[in-house]
Amino acid sequence: MTSIYRVSNSDELAAAIGGAEPGSSILLADGVYERNEDYIVEGKAGSDTAILTIRAENKGKATIAGESSIRILNSAYVEVWGLRFQVERRESIVLDGSRHARIARNLFEPRQVGEAYSLLSVMGSGSGWNRIERNAFGPKADPGPLVIFDGDGKQISQHDVIEYNYFHHIGPRVVNGLEAIRLGLSGISLSNGYCTIQHNLFENCDGEPEIISVKSGYNTIRYNTFLNSAGQVTARHGHGNRFHHNAFIGDGVKEEMGGFRIYGNDHHIADNYMENLTLDALLIDGGNYDGGPDGYPEAPTPEELRKHWRVYRAHVVNNTIVNCRHGITLGKRVPYAPKQSVIAYNRVCGNGQPTIYEYRPSSAVCINNHDTDVADIRRPVILTRTDVGPDSD
To answer: pLDDT by residue (tens digit) across 181-222?
Structure first.
């Protein structure tokens, strides 16, 4: 049965969430909803024609505050739309064992407290087909990745889409643990996600060396813009990921602005554009663990899963690098240089460096990589604030 619940305080919101059935709408009046208990959505098995919606009556004017998460447990077809989250010390939203959830047009603006936490977590058995779209995440100075996919200890959530979001002003710098998106963990890195991260804008994401840390297999990262962000998109664990049509734009001054850093097997890095970066535009790194050409050794230990795996069969094709401090770099880390990889038809101009620099000899096949006059380069379309976030079209 379809019902509309109009709420104006945290107690009413909790009661409505507890009583609402799939197909119902919970409408939040303007105001602050502050409490120190979670709002629990559990066992709401909706469908594409019976969606449970938790929605601000006026976008951005209903604020979830205090130490309270919206936890969506073992549910399907739940939407959270148009809220402002100013939560302390906790995730704002947790998707746990849930499917076909839609998290859209929300503002995630955590209150800085000096402790570690994330903003949105996707976890649990059977999770998948969720959409995280047109939200704004940041600023964030406290430790903890903004969006995390932790899976269930064996398998990452599958077929999720993260698109048209604005990630911004992350930092100051930490050694580890302040990624914009962490897509997996070392312990589940040999599972495949088939997730897509696309059409997002990352601006001044300076929190740590890995802006997006991919720790699972067969995901796609495409059509994103990285603007003046100190870090790299990193294939840290897992195999078979696709990275294409992304744009990395720096100012040529801020340190540590890079493009990609790659480990593992069968990654494709194609048709990306990098300009005015101060770190490696493309680092096909060496490794300190050899997982073999198959990439699935029998019973790797937790310590082995955490290592930097040797690169096999990377395809690095048709990328454009303009005025970057370092172009295409192979094999910094020791002892295992990349193997069986193809570096082809990439264009590098304006940095005065070799098109390809190898730290040690590798078996990479290099075909028709060449210097290009900057006048022959066409800059791709760069995403702006009007294209992403809660107010975008």
So the answer is: 999 999 999 999 999 999 999 999 999 999 999 999 999 999
In which band, very low, low, confident or very high, does the pLDDT at 383 lie, cut at 50, 70 and 90? Answer: very high
Residues forming beta bridges with residue 357, ordered by sequence position = 329
CA 15 to chain centre: 33
Q: Has residue 88 got a pLDDT over 70?
A: yes
- Fill in the amino acid letter for 68: S
With 0-12 / 13-18 / 19 or more C-beta atoms within 10 angstroms meaning exposed / middle / buried, residue 373 is exposed
User: What digits encode the pLDDT tens for the residues 362-377?
Assistant: 889 999 998 888 777 8
Cα separation, 269 vs 237, in Å, equals: 15
Where do we find the tokens 């407290």?
Answer: 113
* DSSP category for residue 387: G
Q: In what order do the strands lie in the sheet with 231-237?
A: 39-42, 70-73, 93-96, 120-123, 147-151, 181-184, 210-215, 231-237, 257-262, 280-284, 326-330, 356-358
Residue range 112-387 forms a domain whose CATH class is mainly beta
Q: Which two tokens stand for residue 191?
A: 């599972």
SS (H, E, C) 299-348: CCCHHHHHCCECCECCEEECCEEECCCEEEEECCCCCECCECCEEECCEE
The 3-state secondary structure of 291-310, one letter per residue:
CCCCCCCCCCCHHHHHCCEC
Q: Is residue 98 left, alpha or beta, with left meaning phi > 0 and alpha meaning psi from -120 to 50? A: beta
Instruction: Give dist(CA 274, CA 319) in Å, integer.
Output: 8
Q: Where are the domains of the chain?
A: 112-387
Task: Please report the pLDDT score of residue 1 as a whole number.
Answer: 58
pTM: 0.97
Task: Classify the phi-psi angles of 207: left when phi > 0, otherwise alpha if psi is within -120 to 50, otherwise beta.
Answer: alpha
